[in-house]
Amino acid sequence: MRVLGIEGTAWAASAAVYDNETDDVFIETDPYQPESGGIHPREAAEHMREAIPSVVETALSAATGPIDAVAFSRGPGLGPCLRVVGTAARALAQSLDVSLVGVNHMVAHLEIGRHRSGFDSPVCLNVSGANAHVLGYRNGRYRVLGETMDTGAGNAIDKFTRHVGWTHPGGPKVEEAANDGEYVDLPYVVKGMDFSFSGIMSAAKQAYDDGVPVEDVSRGLQETMFAMLTEVSERALSLTGRDELVVGGGVAQNERLQEMLREMADQRGANLHVPDPRFLGDNAGMIAVLGAMMAAAGETVAVEDSGIDADYRPDQVPVTWRPGEPPAPGGDRSDEIRGAEAVVTVEDGLVTKRRVPKTYRHPALDERLRRERTVEEARLTHDARRAGVPTPVLRDVDVRESTLVVEFVGERDLRDAVGTTRVQSVGEHLATIHGEGIVHGDPTTRNVRVDGPRTYLIDFGLGYYSRDVEDHAMDLHVFEQSLRGTADEPEPLVSAFEGAYADAGQDAVLDQLRAIEGRGRYQ
Ligand SMILES: C[C@@H](O)[C@H](NC(=O)OP(=O)(O)OC[C@H]1O[C@@H](n2cnc3c(N)ncnc32)[C@H](O)[C@@H]1O)C(=O)O
Ligand SMILES: [Fe+2]
């Protein structure tokens, strides 16, 4: 089958022809380059109107035979651009008299990595202009395991470069400048597998305004943002028990990010695949490749139903083109358990947890995070138990060695034994600690231990004190995301969890949770 792909969600007017028998991909791209500032939606749409016909013509003339389907980016992206591309794709499908395939651009960023790597069931880190998220596959959908709570990765960097007067796109310029810079500290914000870039961006602009050399700010920016992305990727691998990682999106072209991810993957015995640069930034090749898989599975769309969707999320797409899911890996049963950030050994009913240095992080950042988290974990584990929530009793703390010794609790992780009563008790526990102004920070199903109906909260390393409803709601969001990422039928569990939280906690937190879920991520 030969598929014509068309991409034009933001800056790349691109067309490609993919032949699934030879696996050849021909791509022709004409980028939009704003003269000043960022991407202007109307200018970008004007660029699409001018450039799409000629890139399509070039792609078609490179095709070695007739086209069997036309695939196009249906969203997410800039509305005015999407409309131009949608119109062109419909007209082409009709004039060539072939079927039409509407592709989710974010799923395409992911699938190109899975396709090129040959991996079975990778976790995917998508880092592009308007997005940043970690996806895993479960029961016929790509699940968002974690994502930015505000700006996309590329847009965050581009906002900083606009502030310092550099032209769009800023990513490559920051990469170059960072090579000559010294690391500076910037806010590091990870909540479970979600993360935020807005605090870093304000701090980076402020540092520049205060006279810190732009090279140093660039270095700090990269080290901080990419360490966050690497950390959440590692958490996603750990939570899902998978050992394959692919990346996608324009920011994944950054060599420092690739280096950090490779180091993390090597150290945990996982495989990383970075697609060729031509498949990373926006390109129609990834649209054509996914289009071919979808067309082969019968996922075509009638012209009258092929409207665009500027907020199209990857988890809205029913994934019908993949073969069955490979079996979930068994849990780690050895004595030494390598979690996402610590090495845990169990002996004589005691657990020793050592936060090992992460060599992918800058040493200063690594030192700061291990120290802060060890101190917070000791303090909050203790305070939560005093508030009446089962947590392990603390036996020893060595901050210099980033090591804690606590009592062994529970028989297994909640991940491997989810059930209604247990998630209800987690709802009660979170309501209790929130009542004391304690935020857990990472309440995933792996950070809850179960013993019969009883549940224990462990691993308060990302926790802190706050009475802000947003912070409390994020705890609920993180827990629900992890239920959705690991349970076969998550929705009844989510309801039971929320019901128990509602009975014991504050309604305002649940209202805020709805606000978090409804928030547009495409800034
Ligand atoms: C919705 C869609 O239109 C959007 N696409 C998009 O943003 O284009 P993409 O090509 O995936 O990514 C562009 C971003 O990638 C950044 N970028 C490019 N090269 C970079 C580098 N070497 N280091 C860091 N960032 C880089 C640019 O600064 C820009 O922000 C998306 O996927 O979110
Ligand atoms: Fe993109």
Automatic annotation (TrEMBL):
Binding site for ATP: K353
GO cellular component, one term: cytoplasm
Binding, L-threonylcarbamoyladenylate: N126, V127, S128, G129, A130, D158, G171, E175, N254
Region (Disordered): 312-335
InterPro entries: ATPase_NBD, Bud32, Gcp-like_dom, KAE1/TsaD, Kae1_archaea_euk, Kinase-like_dom_sf, tRNA_threonyl_synthase/kinase
Active site (UniProt): D442
Reactions it catalyzes: L-seryl-[protein] + ATP = O-phospho-L-seryl-[protein] + ADP + H(+); L-threonyl-[protein] + ATP = O-phospho-L-threonyl-[protein] + ADP + H(+); L-threonylcarbamoyladenylate + adenosine(37) in tRNA = N(6)-L-threonylcarbamoyladenosine(37) in tRNA + AMP + H(+)
Segments of this protein annotated with the region Kae1: 1-321
Cofactor binding annotation: Binds 1 Fe(2+) ion per subunit.
Quaternary structure and interacting proteins, as annotated: Component of the KEOPS complex that consists of Kae1, Bud32, Cgi121 and Pcc1; the whole complex dimerizes.
Protein name from the UniProt record: Probable bifunctional tRNA threonylcarbamoyladenosine biosynthesis protein
